[in-house]
Amino acid sequence: LLIWLRLQGSVLDGIRTRNIRGHFVRGLAGTGGLYFSYLSLLYISLTDATAINYAAPLFTVLLAALFLREKVRHYRWVAVFTGFSGILVMFSGHLTLTRQATFSLSASAGILLALMAAFCTACALVQIRFLNGKEKPGAIAFWFAITTALTSLVTLPGGWEVPHGNQLALLVGCG
After folding, report:
1. Residues 16-47: pLDDT tens digits?
2. How crowded is the C-beta side of 73, counted as CA atoms within 13 Å?
3. What is the dihedral sign for C-alpha 11, 14, 16, 22?
């Protein structure tokens, strides 16, 4: 990111911001989306978590209408309603229909975490849209990276392992 910013001109001009609070909100929402998505995988399958994460655009429409005052036409509201209905159909696969309809506790936790991931992702997208006209793309990316790095320090007591050899090479390659 810093190399790209340097190629664009000045690194400091690229990361300068007038809205650190907005970047912090975006960073926390985006980080929450990542964390909740990974946590959901402890309880539900990757396919279910991915399918539920497709609710993010549905939440985005709702949030953009509420917070950005975007006009949403009736056909889009119908699509949002249909999309949320589809999510309920997906949940039905985790519902055991016996004399008493029950959800398994782990599936319920996974579904809730996946929905939280989708909601946080939508919040981040709406916040990016809000920041887009006011901030440079480099600043939006930089402050997200900083917020994610700082919030990741909270997980340090959970037992970090220092990557070595191939792990380190793969992480650097992904970066």
Report:
1. 888 889 999 999 999 999 999 999 999 999 98
2. 1
3. negative
Domain count along the chain:
1
Q: Is residue 6 part of a domain?
A: no
Which of 94, 98, 105 minimizes the C-alpha distance to 52?
Answer: 94
Q: Is residue 3 part of a domain?
A: no
Residue 68 within any structural domain of the chain: yes
24-50 b/e (C-beta count within 10 Å ≥ 16 → b)? bbbbbbbbbbbbbbebbbebbeeebbe
Residue ranges making up the domain that contains 73: 15-174
State both tokens at 1.
Answer: 């990111």
Residue 47 lies in a domain: yes
Structure tokens at 149: 């790095």
Q: Are 43 and 114 in contact (CB under 8 A)?
A: no
How far is it, in rounded angstroms, from Cα 10 to Cα 2?
Answer: 10
Q: Rounded distance, CA 60 to CA 71, Å?
A: 13
Q: What pTM did the predictor assign?
A: 0.81
DSSP run (H or E) holding 45: none
Contact 1, 142 (CB under 8 A): yes
